[in-house]
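User: Show me a protein chain along with its predicted structure.
Assistant: Here is one chain, sequence first, then structure tokens.
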Amino acid sequence: MLSRRYALKFFGFGGVASAGLFAYGLTSSVLQSRNEALQEALLQSLTNRHHAAEIGKAWVQQYRLGFVPPKLVADRLSQRLSTYGWHENVEMRGLRRAIAAAVRQDFLDGSIIDVRGWQIARTQAELCVLAHLNSKRA
């Protein structure tokens, strides 16, 4: 027999659990849309997304990187660029300054990627990979 106390405990817990799952789903969708906005901001910094995507594709193929989640690439770039004063609420000029500073530092640190004989900074290469991954989704 189902007692009233048991039913209240069961449905009370279910209500809390479903509220928690709803909040988790809401939070994850907010984080996902935030990351998509981050990716778009980073991609807008590129002069030519198509050419950048070709370089990114060549790097992925040359080093057999396999699947790289765009979210991971965008988060990594965002973290690196924040060291140079950029955050998501800064305008495009600030983003481009941060990218230029990161590229300079990459060259100073020897963080260079060879893509078909071209030597580019790791920051540039990761932006190109992001362009490539986003061109595949479009």
